[in-house]
Amino acid sequence: MPRRVTIGFATIFTVLVLWLMLSTVLAVIPSGRFPSPAETWSALVHVSGRGYGGGDLMMHVYNSLRLVVMGFLFAIFTGVPLGLLMGWSRRAEALINPIFLIIRPIPPLAWIPLAILWLGLGDAAKIMVIWFSAFVPSVINTYAGVRNIDRPMLEAAYMLGMPRLRFVSEVLIPGASPMIFTGLRLSLQASWTTLVAAELVGAFYGIGRVLNVAQQDLYPGMILVGMIAVAILGWGTTRALGVVEARALRWNTAALAAKG
Amino acid sequence: MQKSISLTESIILGCIGLIGFIGLWHGLSVSGLFPSVFLPSPIEVYDRFMVLLDRRFAGATLPAHMLASFERFAYGFILAAVIGIPLGLLMGWYQLLDEIVSPLFDALRFVAPIAWVPFAALWFGTGIGGPIMIIFAGAFPPCVINAYRGAKFVDPRLIEAANMLGTPSHRVIREVLLPSSVPSIISGLRVSAGLGWQSLVGAELIVASAGVGYMMVQGQANIQTHTVMAGMVAIGLVGLALDSALRLVERIIQRRRGLDQ
């Protein structure tokens, strides 16, 4: 095993042992402040079995995941085309960029009260704020990606009289795809942050709801379970996006290698 | 082919875009399609902003709320920089520390900063301590990561040269490693200021009794859309000012380095 991995495991193991020692054996950490491993486990059993904050763990996870995926996909399907358009047409860029410049400094989380006013505490408000938080990085990175395409490549495609639709699908999108994926990774992170915040402000279900109820009940074990669930979901979806990226870009580099 | 357009044309188009956007907003608002309680016109938002400058809402005027927010932000951000930058640099210089801290850091990074809200409230209360911890949680990772990168990508030849000349190690750190890492550290600070500012807003929406986020939540509870929008404008303006200030620092440092070489 490489040294790095060994030390990594050793560190995690040490931290877990320390946690057990400090919270249970020596009882230095008061259980009202931070849960012991046993309390965390019992909170996990509690939320998976009887349920907590309006449903069981799977229901909360499913709903949070569903909202993030919907908002994120919605942002991709609106943000990437807009980015492509702004990268491609100087006119579109000149028209749209100033609007972006005034909206962009407003952090996505600041839209939450407005979304609640407009759409209430249900799914629609969450999808709106997730869409908004994921939209901006998608647009900006796609736009930068198009701008970074080699000019000779564009000129060659133009010279050969490539039909517009093929030009978009075979030159613009593949050329910009490394940057598009950078944007999507940022969008995904922003989506999770926004969802958790929106659910903490007010929701009927979801991981943020679990965190919120646990905070009111002063239930540290459940808070930790909620945080671990958020971390695992964030990590899992990032990995999933990484798999998609690897496949998409493998095709891309293969295509480039075949050409040149 | 990408057609270049003249500066005048791009300015005209930009104005058309902005006027179109604000006009559409105004039009929708006065058209009566949506009740004006929910979609105030740009003028109403502007008026509300001006009113909030010296009339109290949710316990304070807008500048007073902003000052409360900014104070929390400054503490959280400075704390993140003071702890994060040295940690990142040390991780970059000492491999063992890197190998010990990285797995923990990577595991914690996937917890959205906002998910710390319940523990922050439990440990430090909802006054000033809790929000500072959330800002810290948002601003800390970019400080560490960029300081780490800065330290990792120092030209090894410079270190070798310094070692060969028998430079004592504290001077190597101060005169070789640190200056080479500065650009990366500064860009990390810009990212972390942005994330910290956003985390502050989130924290104040959930747990706070003062600050712009709190003012917006109160506006929302009282169905005052114009107050919420005025809050958004204020947050955007301060965020923009913050980013411009750090960008200026970045540019000054870059220029100085350019002159040095």
How much of the polypeptide of chain A forms β-strand, as a percent range? Answer: under 5%
Average of the residue pLDDT scores of chain B:
87
Please, what is the average pLDDT of chain A? 88
> Percent helix among the residues of chain A?
over 70%
What's the number of domains of chain B? Answer: 2
CATH homologous superfamily (4th level) name of the largest domain in chain B:
MetI-like
How many distinct beta strands of chain A?
0
Looking at the overall shape, the CATH architecture of the largest domain in chain B is: Orthogonal Bundle
Largest sheet of chain A: none
The CATH architecture of the largest domain in chain A: Orthogonal Bundle
Q: Count the beta strands of chain B.
A: 0
Radius of gyration of chain A: 23 Å
Distance between the termini of chain A: 39 Å
Percent of residues of chain B in helical segments?
Answer: over 70%
Task: Report the C-alpha radius of gyration of chain B, rounded.
Answer: 23 Å
Task: Please tell me what the overall shape of chain B is.
Answer: globular
Residue windows where pLDDT falls under 50 for at least 5 positions of chain A = none
Report strand % of chain B. under 5%
How far is the first residue's CA from the last residue's CA of chain B?
40 Å
Q: For the record, what CATH class of the largest domain in chain B applies?
A: Mainly Alpha
- The CATH topology label of the largest domain in chain A is MetI-like fold
Topology:
The complex is a heterodimer of chains A (260) and B (261).
Chain A: H1 3-25, H2 37-48, H3 57-88, H4 90-103, H5 112-119, H6 123-147, H7 151-159, H8 164-201, H9 207-216, H10 220-259
Helix pairs in contact in A: 2-10, 3-4, 3-6, 3-8, 3-9, 5-6, 6-8, 8-9, 8-10, 9-10
Chain B: H1 7-31, H2 42-54, H3 62-93, H4 95-109, H5 117-152, H6 156-164, H7 169-206, H8 212-221, H9 225-260
Short note summarizing the structure:
The complex is a heterodimer of chains A (260) and B (261). Chain A has 260 residues and is mainly alpha-helical. Chain A contains ten helices and no strands.
